Amino acid sequence: MSELAWWQRGVIYQIYPRSFQDSNGDGIGDLAGMSSRLPYLAELGVDAVWVSPIYPSPMADFGYDVADYCNIDPMFGTLADFKQFADRAHGLGMKVLLDFVPNHSSDRHPWFEESRSSRDNPKRDWYLWRDPAPGGGPPNNWQSRMGGSAWEWDERTGQYYYHAFLREQPDLNWRNPQVRRAMDDVLRFWLDHGVDGFRVDVLWLLIKDAQFRDNPPNPAYEPGQPDHHRQLHTYTEDQPEVHDIVRSMRATLAEYGQRVLIGEIYLPVPQLIRYYGANGDGADMPFNFQLLNATWHAGEIARMIRDYDTALPEHAWPNWVLGNHDNPRVASRVGLAQARVAAVLLLTLRGTPTLYYGDEIGMTDGVIPPDQVQDPAEIRQPGIGQGRDPERTPMQWDTSLPNAGFTTGRSWLPVASETSVHIQNGDPSSMLSLYRRLLKLRRNNAALVQGAIEHVAAYGDVLTYERHHRGQRLFIALNMGAADAEVESREGVVLLSTFAGRDGQPLRQGANRLAAGEALIASV
Ligand code: GLC
């Protein structure tokens, strides 16, 4: 497997730092806590950890509002703690990826404080400032993704500034070469600190229309949907010039050897794959989020896998994501039984899988009482399903009450459910054991890591496909339905089933029975 880069062979695990492990009793996770749990991740069998933002921040958007790109928020620890965390991860054979948030800073970042101080401040043009529209009011109709106009009036200097998210998150002006240089320095700062790559926040939003034209209305908008769906984002997203920025980020990383550039990009596949660039000069992996809101039906998933595989350019390495801190958890989307099937799917598809913390124990979305809501997305547009607290609840380590071993203090969000690492640890039929077995199998079978994916098909509720590599042929069958089903197969041996006790059993030539919610991997 040596010709592949580590990020092609490996499995990425996302940590949401506020919720992983608290070490000082303040109810919020921190670096020392994360470090103490690294052996757990090594044992789980993942290869890289991506850590959501840990930079100094007023936490208006829980760290996605950065006030200093080159430091650590005291809530999480210090630069020395980060170094310890990275060293420990590296010592255990895991890579460390940081979240890079270049689209916007915090309104408390010194750059913005300078920029807003006067119209002729040298950093004025580092952000997007505009005069009011001729008749007064915001310069154009652009909407914030958190609801309402994306323009905030600044009394002192008599202009509006643009914020794609909260008003506390002003967008930087990526057409300004000084901004580009400053952000390049940020990348270098962390690369020099031994970071192995970045997940780039909202990469497809970095550049906005130079003429600030109004976005057209969205003909498919339905009342009750978030404000932001009222428009097509023709002039605020996926502008052609963004690819030039991606190329320059990629070039900086290339100076440091094998480092990975991952882009957070919510776009349909034809636009998404452009972010790979030409001949590998773009992002290594534009995140493929299709599974996050896929209809959980074998035929749908089969079509999605085939279309993605066909669309990918020759040089492009695929990837799949099952969960993250912005979307409902897989166990809540498809149910606990199918979450096991989803685990097999994620870890047997062609391409790098990204796991979201807690999914390996089947954590479900938490229920957040109204007076405990934290997410600004929910606070600004209550009740329309934008709130992300449910998928950000504390990692459930053990049976201790009320915080499952996450903190000895008062947790910033309530614990979601009763299950825990401790409960599942020694149980061969648990979700955790399934993930461990899957990760091990993947590691030991080149066909799962670099084999071609072939014969992707759906028969009723059963999805099947094969992975081939140098004479090894693996057959994967997933029963995505709630009833037993039959699946046609060659003769072979079951290497792993979601049902404990089937491993090692023969697979007959012809029809084989798959229990409801069973998924298996067989050598055929
Ligand atoms: C990304 C992050 C999300 C954040 C937003 C603004 O989508 O994943 O959590 O709110 O960017 O930074």
UniProtKB/TrEMBL annotation:
One GO biological process term: oligosaccharide catabolic process
**Classification via InterPro entries:** GH (IPR017853), GH13_cat_dom (IPR006047), O16G_dom_2 (IPR045857)
At the top level, the lineage of the source is Bacteria
Q: What would be an example GO MF term here? A: alpha-amylase activity
**Keyword terms of this UniProt record:** Glycosidase, Hydrolase
- Output the Pfam families linked to this UniProt entry: Alpha-amylase
Q: Which residues form the Glycosyl hydrolase family 13 catalytic domain?
A: 14-392
Q: Specify whether Hydrolase is a keyword of the entry.
A: yes
The UniProt entry's coiled-coil ranges are none
UniProt-listed SMART domains: Aamy
Q: Which CDD domains match?
A: AmyAc_OligoGlu_like (cd11331)
Question: What's this protein's family per the entry?
Answer: Belongs to the glycosyl hydrolase 13 family.
User: What's the protein here called?
Assistant: Alpha amylase catalytic region
Tell me the organism.
Paraburkholderia graminis (strain ATCC 700544 / DSM 17151 / LMG 18924 / NCIMB 13744 / C4D1M)
